[in-house]
Amino acid sequence: MVQIYILFLYFCKLMKNIRNFCIIAHIDHGKSTLADRLLQATHTVDARDFQDQVLDDMDLERERGITIKSHAIQMDYVENGVEYILNLIDTPGHVDFSYEVSRSIAACEGALLLVDATQGVQAQTISNLYLAIENNLEIIPIMNKMDMPAAMPDEVRDQIVDLIGCDASNVIEASGKTGQGVEEILAAIITRIPPPKGDPDAPLQALVFDSIFNSYRGIIAYFRILNGTLHSGDLVKFLSTDKEYNADEIGVLKMKQDPKKVLLAGDVGYIISGIKTSKEVRVGDTITHVENPCDQSVGGFQEVKPMLFAGLYPVEADDYEELRSSLEKLQLNDASLTFVPESSAALGFGFRCGFLGLLHMEIVQERLDREFNMDVIATVPNVSYNVITTKKELIEVHNPSGMPSPNVIDHVEEPFIFAQIISKADYIGPIMKLCLDKRGILKNQVYIAANRIELSFDLPLGEIVFDFYDKLKSISKGYASFDYHISGYKPAHLVKLDILLNGDSVDALSSLTHIDNAYPFGRKICEKLRELIPRQQFDIAIQAAIGSKIIARETIKALRKDVTAKCYGGDITRKRKLLEKQKQGKKKMRQIGNVEVPQSAFLAVLKLD
Fold it and tell me: Which residues have C-beta within 8 Å of that of residue 388, sequence separation ≥ 6?
């Protein structure tokens, strides 16, 4: 009994010295660079192993200079002779990866809120802050990039104070590049962020917040223990699937996986139990013991809601099952990706995938190519529409081919977003014109500083998935920031735009669009396809159609062989006979010939202005 009491006191002492926190900020405000300095200050990474953006372990992240995945790592830090365990989660900043941020926040008690001293508070800064406040996290505000000549410390400090309502003295001045303020940040983490709450003697309750697939060891799940204690070799089960496994190996996440014999309430770690089927591990699931299970699963975890949908098809039809396996493995590491099987007359069997944005879609395609060597064709992205039939039935349409016949449609509703744009006041005119051209409705405008304005718009989601973000950055010279969330569905006059090649519809290029955009969009697609589709031995007619009405047409002229070259004399009827024979051959060729649409044509449609 005495031994159990001593063990309990030891566990409580350990828990008191644990701090779980994440870094949140707008894109490119220096999260990964500051994480590098924290790792160096706590001697978590050796000098010979160090490289910039050390936590960004994907080549894709390094090439683009953005964080795509959240990265958890444990640091050991000693202050005043007391050893502390700091569990850091570095999060992405782009709006397309906000689901990664919500998962990281669910596993923490505190957050470092980074604000670029040269740019000030941006849209995603506000969005991520609200997420942290909803989860009752302790916020430590930090002004980063203080070494830059363009830094505006007084102005940015006032913005942070107005946003959070903290004292100006609580805002830490730092620089991820030079290491300024790092010791002050570590001290603030220990003094301001509360230790985790939890009972080591209670039944095991652990939240799964991420997972990866290892071809040798199966699926490795990352978790945060809220209550209870987990030993290596314990028999555990996942509550949502009710499957039982042996905890073959458990441990903490340092630069490499560090095996441990026991993990306590408050710890962040990993579990390897030989799971081979990806469907058996779900992000947001709860791990507990088989013999003494917890009463309920961990609540409050956000369900992912895709913003746009696109079809992914293998270039080779035989690779269908391989593509399914690749998507399942990728979904383990990217829980915001959703997919269901579908088929297309032009492309065969594939999958209808849900993404959080166009950048997310691009990253998924790139990862399929690099990590799984899968060459895929992507269809034109569409958002999800609600179709109300004449019988007042609701049909959810993710794909133009799923659109019912016009005579049974009462009306169509499209998703709208509430968008927040923060920019310099100099660019208010071009930004408003861009949003109004996209059928936006101005809801509010507020000056948050002398030369900074926040604009709020209601915008159709279908109008922003293609090029809105790129255009916004261009017209504001990179200063404007953008954040949004779904606000609901509103009735809209939408039509299905079909693309026909020699009279045959190419369903991969079909799209649902507003009637006002259909004519210019159809004409641009036809012009672009005329440039990209190779010439054949016969004429190719490219048409854009709404129902049976053709609204645009382009023709790719046939390659013509000079069959009369050998006629050097004699009657004209000799030439006419040869030309007539060629004409009949081309007519037959057009009837039976297939038109190959290159992948570049599909990609070009996505980039249409």
Answer: 394, 395, 409, 410, 411, 412, 413
